Amino acid sequence: MLTTLEPKQQQENLLKATKSVFRQMFDDTCQAIEQLDGTAFTEQPWTRENNTWVMGESKGDSIYIDRALLGGTVFEKIGVNYVAINGELPPGMTFQKAGALATDEADQIDSEKGTPFFATGTSFVIHPRNPMVPIVHCNYRYFQVGKISEPQYWWFGGGADLTPAYLFEEDAVHFHKAHKAVCDQYDVAYYPRFKKWCDDYFHISHRGESRGIGGIFFDQLNHLPAEQLLEFVTDCTKVFPQAYLPIVERCKDMSFTEENKQWQRIVRGRYVEFILTSDRGARFGLASGMVNHQSIFNCMPPAASWTYDDQPNLGSQEASLRAVLKQPREWV
Amino acid sequence: MLTTLEPKQQQENLLKATKSVFRQMFDDTCQAIEQLDGTAFTEQPWTRENNTWVMGESKGDSIYIDRALLGGTVFEKIGVNYVAINGELPPGMTFQKAGALATDEADQIDSEKGTPFFATGTSFVIHPRNPMVPIVHCNYRYFQVGKISEPQYWWFGGGADLTPAYLFEEDAVHFHKAHKAVCDQYDVAYYPRFKKWCDDYFHISHRGESRGIGGIFFDQLNHLPAEQLLEFVTDCTKVFPQAYLPIVERCKDMSFTEENKQWQRIVRGRYVEFILTSDRGARFGLASGMVNHQSIFNCMPPAASWTYDDQPNLGSQEASLRAVLKQPREWV
């Protein structure tokens, strides 16, 4: 059906469908989380006025909404956002310079004038209270560069990855299996490729450690028509709560000590290190000025800790986690 | 006297004297801190083997010592180090690329082959327990590039700056006055220049806020013979405990609430943001691979926190601190 439409109309439909998929994920996943926790998210919409973000509903066609859940019964802090921005990179800034992309395909447009782009996506970072429940991050996004009706370059990106403070192998297997099942429906080459991409990307290079036990990650995905990739990404957005929430249910009432809680804070400290030194989204937001910092830091943990020597005792659960982080494993 | 010596001998004497000044500061200041706290530092020497740092006394001529004070009565966490490294930047890496310098004067040597350098310095980051006592950072360093006996480029850098969670103006004035007095002995232009340099450098650009209420900072200082600048830097190292410890004595027994403590964690979160996104020393260490990450992160706070909206209530002490951070003040 779509192919019989004018290209402009086809492009308009694609953007509408893409925004709607991410909005649906934003709403459905928040609802599932609220139900599990019994605590409501607060919502903060932002609007862009004179090149700065101010609190309030957008009057234009760019939408930026943060949601935060603080001090829940199960979740200590959750940061979520949904975005559909019609914007322009500041003159001289490029996607590569801004840290949004590893390569410069998106930067062919003369950036002296300021590069027009459209971006939509949704992002979740969940910090559970119980240290036995892993942190999770999930983000799916669509970017295009150039005129909104005739982009010169576009891509999908995103993924989901798990960061346990205490590793239960069955949870790692469940999380990976759920994502592999979605990948396999589209291309059996996807999961091995996106699993490795995730291990490579969520790597804290100065520590020589992975951030967690991975999941899937991809970026600059545009090898098929956007409509086809959107179907795949849609299924990824749907599998996320199925991949994560059962783990929460299983572990949320496990007993833990203050020592376990302190170890969770150490793990969260590593998380902070990754976000501030390596995360593409955070770097893009900070460098481009296109995202307000309150939204960027919505993903930060409620409490993180550093000590001088955080090497765990030999043979401990903490040490066996560290060993896995030094050497990513195959989970399925 | 010095000028009658051979240049090589003169250079040898300079390096010996410089290392000794920083070593003296390292030892004397740690001793003063231990006396105040009643808690001893632990010491960890590092040595470089096969291009990685391993724990242990150095067998070569490069010295790297960390000291940490954890869980003291007055100080919650202190990270200190002393270094005298005879090293080589990895091929292709430059001081500018590594984030160590804003300009490329030090990078004229062919970096394809790996740039030989010598660096010595000492660094203190002190996180007090009581939120009424400010965090302090102090670092003085000497760098030179090229052959150790005939450097092609050299400079002194460093400074000291105060980061209060609660601002007592008399403490800010005391800290600045002490540093101004040293500066004025050498050049009345120093303090205004180094005070502004400090405000400009310790600025968290994504927040549009200063890290704290400043102090002094300088880098690539080489406008006078090194022997003369060393005298100035020596006096800076000596004034540091006099500038800071009386503030600790005055505030360490003030009463505080859990709300004050939580605000301190928020301020420490900003501190983490600065270190990981902007700090020259941390960036150099991470990018060059010349510093092990355990030492780099010795400066990190014992507990930091982020929340969604950390805007303090109008008219509160926290709000008046934020106002000062948005608009640096003259303190003397």
TrEMBL record, chains A, B:
InterPro entries: Coprogen_oxidase_aer (IPR001260), Coprogen_oxidase_aer_sf (IPR036406), Coprogen_oxidase_CS (IPR018375)
Keyword Transport belongs to the record: no
Signal sequence interval, chain numbering: none
EC number(s) per entry: 1.3.3.3
Molecular-function annotations in GO: coproporphyrinogen oxidase activity
Coiled coil region boundaries: none
Pathway of action: Porphyrin-containing compound metabolism; protoporphyrin-IX biosynthesis; protoporphyrinogen-IX from coproporphyrinogen-III (O2 route): step 1/1
UniProt keyword annotations, A-Z: Oxidoreductase, Porphyrin biosynthesis
Keyword Cytoplasm annotated: no
Assembly and interaction partners: Homodimer.
Family per record: Belongs to the aerobic coproporphyrinogen-III oxidase family.
Designated name of the protein: coproporphyrinogen oxidase
